[in-house]
Every structure is written in C-alpha cells, then in structure tokens.
Specification:
2 domains; 11 helices; 7-stranded mixed β-sheet; alpha/beta; single chain
Length: about 300
C-alpha cells in the first residue's frame, strides 16, 4: 500500500470522530512518525510503498486513534515551542494557546527592566540579562518552565505541581531538553514547601479552569484521557485557583513583578476584577490566535 493510499484510509476511518481537517492532520502525523519522514519528504514520497512492518504499525496507531485516544499519548511525545516533550495521561497535552503565553512572557522579559535590579548609573538591564527568578504553578509536563529556561538561560526557574507523576514527566523533559528547572511537589491551595520562602520576578500559571458543567462541550479525547485534576474546577468557585495564586503573588512577587495567567475564555472580566480588588496594576487581557480571551498579565508594586 502506498503512503497516499494509507493516508486516505486513515482519514476515512477517523472521520466519524474527527473533522476533516483534523483527520488529515492526524493521518499526516501518523505517517511521518512511522516512516520517520518530515512533511517535505512525505509530499515527495506519496507514491512510495510502506513496508509490511510499517503497515502493521500504522494500523495499531489507527486502532488507538479510533477510540479517541490523543495521538500525543499514543506516540508519547508532543512538540511545544520548538521542543520535544514526553507526555502521558498523567499530564495535560500542551496547547498552542500556552505557547502564545510563553511568547508573551519572553517578550516582556526581553524588553522590561525591574527597578530592583542594578543600583549604579544608568537603567537596569533587561530581565533576560539578569538572574531573573520565575515560578510556574501547576506545571504538568513542565512545558512552560522548560521553554522559558531554554530561552532565558540566565534565569532561575522553579515549578510546582501537586502530582508526583506529573513531576516525574516534567523532570524527564527538563533533562531531555538540557535545562535546569527546580521542580517542587506542593499544593498551591495549601502550600507548605520552600516556594513560601522565596520571591520571584515572574509568576505564571495555567491552572485548572474548566467548570464541571462544561464537560458536555469537550471532545471525547480530552474528557476520557486527559487528567481531570488538571482540568476541572467547581461551578460555584470557577476562579478558585486564580484567587489563591493571586494572593500568593501578593506576598511572593518582587517589586514591579509580573503575574501571568492562562484563563477560561468565559471569565476574562471576572478575573480582571479579582486582580483589581487585590491591588494589581497594569492588567492586560489578550486574546489567543482564535480570538478568544485567553491570557492575562498584571504587575504588582510594593
């Protein structure tokens, strides 16, 4: 069977579960992984035949895809901000929206100086040139702190998660991507670790923000396979984590430090109002590439 015929077969069998565009993307991903090809090679070799072993491998992956299992969990790998990351069902699959959040943080660190840095003549250096301290809360796979450390090699980067199994994945990903991140197991709703003894220039979090009532809106491949601990919050307390993390930031941000959130698109204004009440300034809400309210930045001056 040729690559083109195999792609067509995959698409046809996935259409009951996925839209055409996503089915095509998955077919391409499967073939590239099995045949060890990049996208350009795949286009060139459409009429090449797969070996019997490759056909068996494709069929195995296809059978798992038809159950709704995400391809990232099937292949145990995903890409985030140009980095390869190991993932399994103990961590959320990193989303493109979170890449946008990382890009925003990096743009700020490369253009803004904190008054607490430098005491001599002239302006303090940009954050990227200093020993900036960053904390990611609810790190999961470690995608955010690893991407930040990779692009800010001078930074001291810390990450916390309640899940021991998630932290195992995160530590593995840091090693594979050759970055140093200090991972800490703790519950941000009741913190008791060394994160309480330190201050940070940037605190970022993509915490659980999907209300339980929104389950019916979710695709089966998310609902049945991704960790609910990292997804859901009670309907009657949708901003639970934002409230707690904002209080934590009030104590543990350095002067003129930054707080970044990824948010539920339905709660942009409510999250802004929460931060205003707590005394944060320069609050900015940004939309993601799909035009949905998705990210917030705030500063705090002592």
């Amino acid at each position: 069977m040729t690559i083109e015929a195999q792609e067509k077969k995959i698409i046809e069998q996935l259409l009951p579960l996925y839209a055409m565009e996503e089915a095509r993307s998955l077919a391409c991903w499967v073939i590239m992984d099995v045949c060890r090809m990049n996208r350009s090679q795949l286009l060139i070799h459409k009429q090449s035949a797969l070996s019997a072993e490759e056909v068996v491998c494709v069929d195995h992956i296809l059978s798992e895809l038809k159950t709704g299992k995400p391809i990232q969990y099937i292949l145990s790998v995903t890409e985030f901000y140009g980095l390869k990351l190991h993932v399994d069902s103990s961590v959320l699959i990193p989303r493109p929206e979170t890449e946008e959040l990382v890009a925003w943080i990096l743009s700020i660190t490369k253009s803004v100086s904190l008054g607490s840095y430098g005491s001599g003549v002239g302006a303090p250096p940009p954050l990227e040139k200093t020993r900036v301290r960053l904390l990611d809360i609810g790190t999961g796979s470690g995608c955010i702190p690893i991407a930040l450390k990779k692009n800010l090699p001078n930074a001291s980067v810390f990450a916390v998660d309640i899940s021991a199994s998630a932290l195992m994945i995160a530590r593995e990903n840091a090693i594979c991507n050759e970055v140093e991140v200090q991972f800490i197991q703790d519950d941000i709703l009741n913190p008791c670790s060394e994160i309480l003894d330190q201050r940070y220039d940037v605190i970022v979090s993509n915490p659980p923000y999907v209300r339980l009532s929104e389950k019916s809106d979710m695709h089966v491949n998310v609902l049945d396979y991704e960790p609910h601990l990292a997804l859901f919050v009670p309907d009657n307390n949708a901003l639970l984590f934002y409230d707690q993390i904002a209080d934590f930031a009030l104590v543990h941000l350095n002067d003129q430090g930054f707080l970044f959130f990824e948010i539920n698109e339905r709660f942009g204004q409510q999250t802004i109002d929460l931060l205003v009440r707590k005394g944060f300034q320069e609050i900015e809400l940004r939309k993601d590439i799909r035009g949905k309210d998705r990210m917030l930045k705030a500063t705090y001056s002592r």
